[in-house]
Amino acid sequence: MNETILTPQDISAEWLRLYRDNSDILTKNSGEILNSQRAKALDDFMRLGIPSTKNEAYRYTRVEDYLKGNYDAEFTNDPFKVDLREIFKCDIPELDTHVVLVLNGFYYTDNNPAGLPDGIIVCGLNEASVKYPDIFRQHYGKYAGTETDGLVALNTLFANDGVFVYVPDGMSLERPLQIINLSFSLRNLRITRRNLFVTGDNSSCSIVLCDHTLCAHSYITNSLTEIYAGRNARVDFSRMQNENSLSSQITHAFIHQEESSKVTSNTISLHGGLIRNNFFVRLNGTGCESNLYGLFLGDDNQHIANFTLIHHAMPQCTSNQLFKGILDDNATGSFNGKIYVSRDAQKTLAYQKNNNILLSPAARMNTKPHLEIYADDVKCSHGATVGRLDTEAMFYLRSRGIGEKEARQLLMYAFADEIISKISVSILRERIIGLVDKRLRGELARCNNCDVRCG
Which residue of 71, 96, 183, 262 is 20 to 30 Å from 382, comparing CA positions? Predict the structure, then answer.
């Protein structure tokens, strides 16, 4: 029997049916501000639909192949009567962080991030929309427009919880905030995650996101995070992705920076069936600095894609992009990065680089760094490489008595270290070093350690 081929239009119609069948439950359990944006998101999604490879941003990722299938969805925050802290053991524990758990997109009801300075808010997204409407309305949906990407519109359509972080003017979150996203169900599941992080003028914080699956089931996750950095704010944002090979994760990070702010983002993609990371940065004030770093490791039939758009809207701003990938077996990857310099953004400094290593003849990497510049007093550069392990370096190591397997391991780790060294939280950096080392040796479990036995 021939398998039915579903087009992006078919997949879009399936998601629309899911929304219309459950819109009453969704809106009943969500605050007014969240609900107020659904009508426009619905119109935009009906117009845009699921992006196809005809969309240049998704040229190398057939999203429809991952968003189809028989999946359930949850629209209430009471799917399990379990103690997540008892069954979950994080790959990077004991980081001296404020820890909050998110279960299938919902802020875990037993979260209690103790020791937060007075004035700093960490709570569920839906809770924040009701308790802090003035702050929430000022920022929610202001940076993640639904007009150009159907998956952003889809996230806004289904969003009803996640994490809200607010750091007022002049305050600092001294200990990092660790947000652990857990996918846990005995059914295949569609998951929507939505976060909003607001950091005021002269504030600072460090946020670590960890994505895990607790069962060997299939999960489709559409995740979106909006980050606002006020004047002279300092934000460090790290993400560690380690989900099972059945999972499909699409993430969007929208970062809006005001004058003299500095935001550093570092994404480590260790494992997952599909990982698609989209980064949108707007440098909206003079003197901003943006640093985007990423490391991805793929094998088997994984597909890992990174898309970046850095918009230099104001003068005297700096942006750095460095993404590195190691692909083995039949893994595929892509990097599509763009630097956009507006006419008024004079004195711009913008750098972009993507380097990749292919370990097998079947592994494939597509890379497309590019510039679009309308100012005349700028310094911008971009470049990309795709190749094999350095044969001269391999020969040197072998000639010193190092075995072939260990020599390959050393070269791969040296290649990855340039990204890992950018992680500012020292104890997190040490944990990531160990995880990457295990991943390169093929020792990292495909499904995170837990006490649940999923058959």
Answer: 262
Residue 165's Cβ-count burial label (10 Å; 0-12, 13-18, 19+) is buried
Nearest-angstrom CA–CA distance, 335 and 276: 10
CA distance 177 to 418: 24
Listed in sequence order, the residues at least 6 apart from 224 whose beta carbon sits closer than 8 Å to its beta carbon are 144, 152, 155, 156, 159, 193, 194, 195, 251, 252, 253, 254
Q: What sign does the dihedral 220-441-266-211 (CA atoms) show?
A: positive
Determine the 3-state secondary structure of 151 from DSSP: helix
Q: Of residues 93 and 294, which shows the higher confidence score?
A: 294
Q: Report the pLDDT averaged over residues 209-226.
A: 93
Give mean pLDDT, residues 58-67.
92
Distance CA(197)–CA(151), nearest Å, equals 20
What is the pTM for the complete model shown?
0.93
**Domain limits, the chain:** 8-440
CA distance 205 to 173: 5
Summarize pLDDT for 159-211 with one digit per residue, the tens: 999 999 999 999 999 889 999 999 988 899 999 999 999 999 999 999 999 99
